[in-house]
Every structure is written in C-alpha cells, then in structure tokens.
Design brief:
By secondary structure, the chain is of the alpha+beta class. It has ten helices and ten strands.
C-alpha cells in the first residue's frame, strides 16, 4: 500500500528503500517481540546491518561508510522501525555517535575514529545528558581539566544509548564552568580507558533491547589530540549534531507509526464482529483515515527537513532554517507516532493491550521518541524562538 508512493525519491532511493523493507520483513520482524521480551541487545541485528551496509549508511564513503545522504539514511531507519524500533535505533545511535566527529573532527581524527564506526567494528555513543543537565546542557557538571598534553575527565553521564557497549564515546565536559555553555568542550573517549566505568543499566518501558546506561568518569585520561574543535565549542558541536540527527529520530517515530497502521489494517480486516469484518465499520474507517493522514503529513515534513539539513552539509555552521526544520520534523513525527500507536491499541481492543500483538510494543516504543534528542517541549521552544527571530529579522 504505502510503497506505491514515490515521494519524489530517486530510482536509487526507491530501490534502497524496498531492499530495506524486504530485509526488515524477512530478517528483523520475527525477532522484534523476543528482543523486547528479553531486553537483550541484538548483536545478531548488528551483524545483519554490517553485512548489508546499513550500520554506517550515512557516513561518507571515504571513511568506509555507505555515503548515503540524510534522506536515504532516514529511509533505512524508517523501514526498520516499522517492524522493530530497537533495531532501528542501532543505525540512528551509530550515526549520533559519529556525527560530532564528522562535524568538528580534524582530518586525522576522522581517519582514526570513523572507519571502525562505519563498519560496525566499534559501536559509538553520544554522552551529553547528566543527572542535573538534561534539557539544560548548560548545567553540565562533568569536568575536563587540562594537564599538559591531556585532560582528566571526571563526572557522570546518564541515559546514554549504547552505554557500556560503545567503544568510541563523544563526551561533553566543562573545561571552564564559569562560562556556562561557552565553557563546554567535546572529547573523543575510548571506553577502555582506565577510570571509565559503567554504572546503572536502565530497565526501560520501550526500546528495551537497546542498552541505556550511566557512565562514570573517574579521572579518565584523554589526549588533548582527542578534543573536538577548540575549548568552549562543545555546546555548539552538540547542537549542530542534534540538528543533523533529529531527523533520524523523526524517521524512527514515523516507522513505528507506519507499522502500527499496517498492523491495525491487518487485524481489522481479519476479525469479525456483528457478522462482518471490523474494517467495514465506518467509525473505525475514520480512525484509520486520520492515522494515514497524520503519517502522510509527518512523512512530507520529514523528507523536506532531510533535504534542508543535507543541503547545509556536515561542516556548515548553525543555521536557523536547519534547526527549525529538524525540530519540526522530530516534533511532528514523534507526536504522530504516539497518537497513531495509541489509536492502534484502541482499534485492536483487548488484543491491543496484550503482548501477543505488536501494537502494544509499538506504543511503548513510540513514547521515547517524544523524549530523547530533545524533549518535544524543547522542540516547541526551539521552533518558537526561531520563528520570533525570523520575524524580527523581517521588521
């Protein structure tokens, strides 16, 4: 049904999308319920992505990646999330961990750290959030103290995707706490470094097969050569990173919503009440129509956002247009995912509330897309401020 639509995609993108669609149906869908039930990280899916060139699909070819543009990367995440949100997060998290290096890394840093991430030999992570610094990154307490040709990192990070699994972790720490966000710097840290420890592994509502952990830094020695950019540029690097990766979360949310719609149509077509298939009932048809419309509107916004962000390029400075489109896509797609999966559970009735049917898992998985990589309240704030700044520029 959905794949009859081309959305202005190139022939290559259409072939790629259909390939990932088949791979998801044939190799990932059957694993989704077990991944959720056990909460175990699916290394077999990592291997599958390695074999099919998906784990580093958006990393440039010169570093061993797939060289895909942002929209093509989003297509991969969307198609996988349609059957398994945890599996789609493997791709999204790998790109999140690589993105600060792509954005701000020196030529030598890129050559050293990106190829193992692109191949999937090393998982990557992005460590920004702290117990007292979630939406307010200016509250960063992790310290980085310069000692000659290296830094010592001390502090705690929380809710880190791939925490405890990632070999390469981009860590944001205050080099000058007196300067607030202008005193934050970014570092590439090897998780095998002495003093780098794993704290609590979170037991989550959704995306249960993705490992989310607390990271503890006890005087971790990091060479100065592994600082990204100049001291004090960390916050800007983090925000530019999120501008490029939020569309991936939007794609994950969109895929979850699409999967929930497909499961709903299948169930309503096969189940009878009052002597006829449920899908023949107009009240339920109206719900499905609303779900389809919300998904379609979200998809159009996401694909446009991916185009805007891609045009800006990896090394572009912060752009109001990029920030706005990225935030709007993440906001709309994740709100749509939550609405559509909630309606899907309602449409399946009692079956929707039990784990034998996928919409219950999809509803739990959808919730995180409204929270991570910037809560939707923060997205609304970003969009509003961006809108007002644009208004002032025109007056």
């Amino acid at each position: 049904m959905e794949h009859a639509l081309q959305y202005g995609l190139s022939e290559e993108q259409l072939m790629f999308r259909d390939m990932v669609h088949r791979l998801a149906d044939e190799r990932i869908a059957a694993r989704a319920a077990d991944i959720d039930a056990t909460g175990e990280f699916p290394w077999d899916i990592v291997d599958l992505f390695r074999e099919n060139g998906l784990i580093g699909v958006g990393i440039p070819e010169e570093y061993g990646g797939g060289g895909a543009d942002l929209l093509t990367s989003c297509l991969a995440i969307e198609e996988v999330a349609r059957v398994c949100a945890t599996s789609s997060l493997i791709i999204a998290a790998q790109h999140l961990g690589a993105m600060p290096i792509l954005i701000a890394g020196s030529a030598s840093q890129k050559q050293q750290f990106l190829p193992p991430i692109a191949s999937g030999e090393h998982l990557a992570a992005f460590a920004l959030t702290e117990p007292d610094a979630g939406s307010d990154a200016g509250g960063t307490r992790t310290r980085a103290v310069k000692e000659g040709d290296h830094y010592r990192l001390s502090g705690t990070k929380v809710f880190i995707t791939n925490g405890g699994l990632a070999k390469t972790v981009v860590v944001f720490a205050a080099t000058d706490p007196s300067k607030g966000i202008k005193g934050i710097s970014a570092f590439i840290v090897d998780s095998d470094s002495p003093g780098f420890n794993i704290g609590r592994i979170e037991d989550k509502m959704g995306i249960r097969g993705s490992q989310t952990a607390q990271l503890l830094f006890d005087g971790v020695k990091v060479p100065a050569a592994q600082r990204l950019g100049a001291e004090g540029e960390g916050f800007t690097i983090a925000m530019r990173t999120l501008d490029r990766t939020r569309p991936g979360i939007a794609a994950q949310a969109l895929g979850i919503a699409q999967g929930a719609l497909e499961a709903s149509v299948q169930h309503l077509s096969s189940r009878q009440q009052f002597g006829r298939p449920l899908i023949d009932m107009q009240a339920l048809q109206f719900m499905l129509a609303d779900m389809q419309t919300q998904i379609e509107a979200s998809r159009q916004l996401l694909y446009r956002a991916a185009e805007v962000v891609e045009t800006a390029g990896f090394e572009a400075q912060a752009s109001a247009e990029v920030t706005r489109h990225s935030a709007m896509a993440k906001l709309m797609c994740s709100d749509t995912a939550m609405k559509v999966t909630t309606d899907a559970v309602q449409l399946l009735g009692g079956y929707g509330y039990v784990r034998d049917y996928p919409v219950e898992r999809m509803m739990r998985d959808a919730k995180i897309t409204q929270i991570y990589e910037g809560t939707n309240q923060i997205q609304r704030l970003v969009i509003f401020r961006n809108m007002m700044a644009e208004r002032h520029r025109r007056t």
